[in-house]
Design brief:
CATH class: Mainly Alpha
Mean pLDDT: 95
Distance between the termini: 25 Å
CATH architecture: Orthogonal Bundle
Shape: elongated
Order of helices and strands: HHH
Helix content: over 70%
Number of domains: 1
CATH topology: Helix Hairpins
Low-confidence stretches: none
Radius of gyration: 13 Å
Number of helices: 3
Length: about 60
């Protein structure tokens, strides 16, 4: 996801997106422990997306 798209989400949507990404990361890590992933770079992409979501949430809290 691009940061521009993340900034357009509402607070509730951001929280939901963060939970969804965390769940997806957990599932990918679990699959990777059983057998190698076809695209292991997805782990890094999802981690970066989680960081972007957390950054926007933090920015909004500090702006208030």
């Amino acid at each position: 996801m691009k940061i521009k798209d993340i900034r357009e989400l509402s607070d509730d949507e951001l929280a939901g997106k963060g939970r969804d990404l965390a769940e997806e990361l957990f599932k990918l890590k679990f699959q990777h422990s059983i057998r190698p992933l076809e695209n292991p770079a997805m782990l890094g992409v999802i981690r970066k997306d989680i960081a972007k979501v957390k950054t926007v949430i933090s920015e909004r809290r500090n702006a208030q």
